[in-house]
Write a structure and sequence with these properties.
Elements: E1 4-5, H1 14-21, H2 32-40, E2 43-47, E3 52-54, E4 63-69, E5 72-77, E6 88-93, E7 98-99, H3 101-106, E8 112-116, E9 120-126, H4 127-134, H5 138-170, H6 194-203, E10 211-213, E11 218-220
Antiparallel strand pairs: 1-2, 2-9, 3-8, 4-7, 4-9, 5-6, 5-8, 10-11
């Protein structure tokens, strides 16, 4: 269903949404004018039970979504949302949860399929407005960056644990380093799109190393 302008929505009023979001992070920590900016620049979207909201095939997300009512079921890697999930399989998002944070910050498609478990209403903010708000609201920026850092740390830990387990299974601790079988380096050409490079890293379980670039206020490899 097409999104609707929040200021004209008959079912979800500005004041009601403001009061509702105040119960959840990062909105509870944000200044009133910044939360109002979030709501003013957002729109609502309605999703029927069983409808797919986001999939890996959807491409790079265009909006950050906040669940206002209903439940969103995810299938796949739960590393894009704010519900605290960090594994694979089925997970659920409820009122106040944001998604897909990691995909937006990394400028890549989601790694999971998000569907409406029951009728769902979401508040959606365009990605451009997400970055603009992160530039003026410290609580919002720290929430977005913190969630990404957490998922990157979990991803690195999982990759390292998997690699260590495989190495121990295949190699004796007494084996000289020079005799260890090492994987060939993985590289891409300078003209390779970022999305393709990220997907290649994900497919090969290569843990990323991120840094915060102050000049452009964005995360980058």
């Amino acid at each position: 269903m097409a999104p609707s302008d929040l200021s004209r929505d008959a079912d979800v009023g500005l004041a009601d949404v403001n009061a509702q979001l105040r119960h959840f992070a990062p909105f509870a920590q944000m200044q009133a004018e910044h939360l109002e900016q979030f709501i003013r620049n957002a729109s609502t979207s309605q999703h029927a039970a069983g409808a797919r909201i986001l999939t890996p095939a959807s491409g790079q997300p265009s909006h950050l979504l906040v669940v206002l009512s209903g439940h969103v079921t995810g299938q796949g890697e739960a590393n894009d949302s704010s519900d605290g999930s960090d594994g694979k399989g089925t997970f659920e998002l409820e009122t106040g949860d944001l998604f897909p944070i990691a995909a937006i910050m990394a400028e890549r498609p989601v790694h999971a399929t998000y569907s409406a478990h029951d009728p769902v209403t979401c508040l959606q903010l365009p990605v451009q407005q997400v970055h603009a708000l992160a530039g003026i609201s410290k609580p919002f920026a720290e929430f977005m960056q913190g969630r990404l850092r957490t998922q990157l740390a979990l991803s690195r830990q999982a990759t390292q644990a998997s690699y260590a387990s495989q190495s121990l299974a295949e190699q004796s601790l007494e084996t000289p380093l020079g005799q260890l079988s090492l994987s060939a380096p993985v590289s891409v050409l300078p003209a390779t799109p970022v999305a393709q490079a990220l997907q290649s890293m994900h497919d090969r379980a290569i843990a990323p190393c991120w840094c915060w670039t102050r000049r452009v206020q964005r995360w980058a490899y």
